[in-house]
């Protein structure tokens, strides 16, 4: 059983939804996850005043993989420019009895009536996670090996509006990894390539977004298209020569009073000599809820989701969702060599602010082999 707790939410399509401070997973708590948890960029229903609205979110943790501990974060929503998009600043920490500990911070802002958008995240985590291997067969076997991993992550993005609702810009990502195998475990268990366990990822590339949503945290209509294509360059300190393409499309359809159908499709493809921690995988974001992070990873993945979002009464709402995805050795073999992975679940929503549409969420999700509990801020997508 996985118990996954998120202090934050929304997978910001391809830019790490690091709209809130941090996330913790039973399997692989990668630092990207630790900065993947708040409302994503976009037009959020902002407060009519410029006074910050601050949300504190402590989440107690207890499961065999991480031990007993606490994840806690603080998120500030404010709008100093009275712009269509409010600013978000967040920070979070995590500590467990098994030794997992980390800290993360995030900031997003916009200028010139949302013509320019900037986001940045920083996180460091020292954790214990499980490595299952690469490919569908390794995921099905479920045999894993514990890894002690220290990670520093920096993620920067700058976008400029180039046509109505369309943005183009650049994204940079840095990750340093210092990982060690648990010595007491058998040598026959799966293990990452040794050269990747102490390595650097330094990648840069173009970023694109097309955003017609009426809100980033609680959209009722519109769509969000995004794409990032990052290239690891040795000139920037990358230990490899590889690239990674991520694309996503979200659509929101209002149906009657208080009902929204949300749809999502996502595609990932990693090329070249990509390290194990930068392959396409499930569990580190919201593309398929209900999977241990990294149990299913390979050089290509795809996912589709449909979610029914219903306002129930007052500040309360509920959701039901289904998903289908898969992994494959390459983007060209998704159809003939892909592994299908189903998912589904239900969720509860609560709106803490009267003048801001940010919501707290709890999702119960089940995948092919596991099930999970997610606690977060804003919708999953």
Please tell me about this protein's structure.
The protein is mainly β and 381 residues long. It has a single domain (111-377), classed as membrane protein fhac: a member of the omp85/tpsb transporter family (Porin), CATH 2.40.160.50. It is built from four helices and 20 strands. 51% of the residues are buried.
Record keyword descriptors for this entry.
single chain, 381 residues, mainly beta, Porin, two-stranded antiparallel sheet, disordered N terminus
Helix-strand pattern:
EEHEEEEEHEEHEEEEEEEEHEEE
The level-1 CATH class: Mainly Beta
DSSP strand tally: 20
In CATH, the topology is named: Porin
End-to-end distance:
24 Å
- What's the alpha carbon Rg, rounded to whole Å? 19 Å
Overall mean pLDDT: 83
Write the layout of secondary structure elements.
Layout: E1 5-7, E2 22-24, H1 31-34, E3 53-63, E4 67-78, E5 87-96, E6 101-111, E7 116-131, H2 136-141, E8 145-163, E9 166-181, H3 194-197, E10 198-211, E11 222-232, E12 242-254, E13 259-272, E14 280-281, E15 297-298, E16 300-313, E17 316-328, H4 334-337, E18 339-350, E19 360-366, E20 371-377
Antiparallel strand pairs: 1-2, 3-4, 4-5, 5-6, 6-7, 7-8, 8-9, 9-10, 10-11, 11-12, 12-13, 13-16, 14-15, 16-17, 17-18, 18-19, 19-20
């Amino acid at each position: 059983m996985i118990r996954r707790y998120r202090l934050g939410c929304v997978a910001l399509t391809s830019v790490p939804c690091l709209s809130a401070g941090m996330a913790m997973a039973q399997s692989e708590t990668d630092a990207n996850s630790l900065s993947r948890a708040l409302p994503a960029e976009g037009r959020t229903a902002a407060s009519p005043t410029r006074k910050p609205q601050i949300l504190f979110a402590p989440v107690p943790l207890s499961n065999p993989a991480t031990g007993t501990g606490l994840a806690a974060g603080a998120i500030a929503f404010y709008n100093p420019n009275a712009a269509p998009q409010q600013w978000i600043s967040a920070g979070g920490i995590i500590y467990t009895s098994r030794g997992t500990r980390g800290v993360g911070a995030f900031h997003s802002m916009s200028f010139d009536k949302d013509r320019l958008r900037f986001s940045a995240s920083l996180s460091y985590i020292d954790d214990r996670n499980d490595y299952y291997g690469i490919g569908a067969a390794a995921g099905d076997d479920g045999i894993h090996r514990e890894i002690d991993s220290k990670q520093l992550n920096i993620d920067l993005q700058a976008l400029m509006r180039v046509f109505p609702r369309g943005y183009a810009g650049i994204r940079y990502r840095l990750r340093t990894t210092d990982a060690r195998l648990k010595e007491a475990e058998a040598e026959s268990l799966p293990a990452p390539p040794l050269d990747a366990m102490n390595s650097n990822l330094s990648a840069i590339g173009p970023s694109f977004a097309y955003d017609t949503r009426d809100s980033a945290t609680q959209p009722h209509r519109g769509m969000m298209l995004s794409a990032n294509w990052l290239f690891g360059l040795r000139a920037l300190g990358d230990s490899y020569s590889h690239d990674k393409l991520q694309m996503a499309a979200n659509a929101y359809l209002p149906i009657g009073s208080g009902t929204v159908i949300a749809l999502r499709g996502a595609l990932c493809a990693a090329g070249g000599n990509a390290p194990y921690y930068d392959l396409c995988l499930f569990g580190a974001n919201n593309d398929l809820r209900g999977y241990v992070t990294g149990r299913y990873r390979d050089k290509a993945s795809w996912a589709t989701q449909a979610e029914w979002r219903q306002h129930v009464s007052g500040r309360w709402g509920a959701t039901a969702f289904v998903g289908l995805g898969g992994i494959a050795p390459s983007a060209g073999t998704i159809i003939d060599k892909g592994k299908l992975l189903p998912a589904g679940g239900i969720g509860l929503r609560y709106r803490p602010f009267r003048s801001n549409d940010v919501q707290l969420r709890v999702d119960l999700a089940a995948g092919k082999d596991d099930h999970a509990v997610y606690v977060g801020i804003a919708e999953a997508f």
